[in-house]
Amino acid sequence: MARKTITTTLVKKFIPARKSKSRKGENGIVLVVGGSYIYHGAPILSSIAALRSGTDLVYTSVPKINVASTRSVSPNLIVIPLVDQKLTRGAVNKLLGALPRKLDSATIGMGLAIQEKNALLHLVKSLLDRDVRLSLDASALIPEVLPLLANKNVVVTPHAGEFKRLFGQAPSNSKNERIKLVEEKAKEFGITVLLKGPTDVISNGSSTYLYEKKIPAMTVGGTGDVLSGLVAGILSKNRKPLESAAAAAFINGLAGKAVQKKLGLHMTSMDLLPEIPIVMKPFDKIV
């Protein structure tokens, strides 16, 4: 199986050029579904990361209890309330009715409280039926979702604990064994897996990309939410999940390195957001 280290040269190929005469909406429309009574910040981090990746529009769907706090953080977010405090079938149906017809990608799960597993499955299936590319994280990573994802445009972004919950096997501490396990599960279920860790392992079962971070400050909560937003943001413009996931991991890491250099081991995930456009600028192409 082909294994490559992610480099700047590779990522330049993975981020599409923007047309000089493009109009609003042509550079990606993203949906973010997340949040709960406790975790109000996660979908905000994902949404702003998606915008900072160069996406034109981001719709942020959070439980109604989180709506005021989410709106107050940024005027750039288009907030769609989930009618219930947790994800229910009724809330999903209302959300599906409120979404724009053109939606390129979605990221689901960060901080999300789920009342009914079937509600999550209904949301995932409905979006895939609309040809929306998906990035799934955190509470969306349950084994019941796997049969819906085979050979669709989907990235899952687990850390080691979520990987075990999703696939029933814990990744080893051995780097080589981790890589083999990710490749095996990606191939078995027909998805792109981005296993987060000191070395990010990204595979679709036939090609694998590795990104060794060495950024200990990035253990702070929320850096994975930023990554999920970047995956969805890049996926809204590049239909290839493997390339989008690899580019997102690299950009998240570049932003983390820049912040760690400035602030040492004292960063928060919010600090990553203003760095994203700076580290992405060398990848900008206009045609």
Blueprint of the fold:
Layout: E1 2-5, H1 8-14, E2 29-33, H2 42-52, E3 57-63, H3 67-73, E4 78-82, H4 89-98, E5 105-108, H5 117-129, E6 133-136, H6 146-149, E7 154-156, H7 160-167, H8 175-189, E8 192-195, E9 199-203, E10 207-212, H9 223-235, H10 241-263, H11 269-280
Would you write up a description of this structure?
Helices cover 43% and strands 16% of the residues. The chain has 287 residues and is of the alpha/beta class. The chain has one domain (2-282): UDP-N-acetylmuramoyl-L-alanine:D-glutamate ligase (3-Layer(aba) Sandwich), CATH 3.40.1190. Strands 1-10-9-8-7-6-5-2-3-4 form a 10-stranded mixed sheet, sandwiched between helices.
Key features?
287 residues; alpha/beta; UDP-N-acetylmuramoyl-L-alanine:D-glutamate ligase; 10-stranded mixed sheet; globular
The mean pLDDT is 97
Return the CATH topology: UDP-N-acetylmuramoyl-L-alanine:D-glutamate ligase
Q: What portion of the residues fall into strands of 2 or more residues?
A: 15-25%
Q: What would you call the shape?
A: globular
Portion of residues in helices? 40-55%
Number of strands: 10
Amino-to-carboxy terminus distance: 34 Å
Name the CATH superfamily classification.
Ribokinase
Side by side, the strands of the main sheet go 1-10-9-8-7-6-5-2-3-4
The major sheet is characterized as: 10 strands, mixed
User: Which segments are poorly predicted (pLDDT under 50) over 5 or more consecutive residues?
Assistant: none
The radius of gyration over CA amounts to 17 Å
State the domain count.
1
Structural class by helix and strand composition: alpha/beta
Task: Please tell me the CATH architecture by its name.
Answer: 3-Layer(aba) Sandwich
Which CATH first-tier class would you pick? Alpha Beta
Number of helices: 11
- The SSE string, one letter per element, is EHEHEHEHEHEHEHHEEEHHH
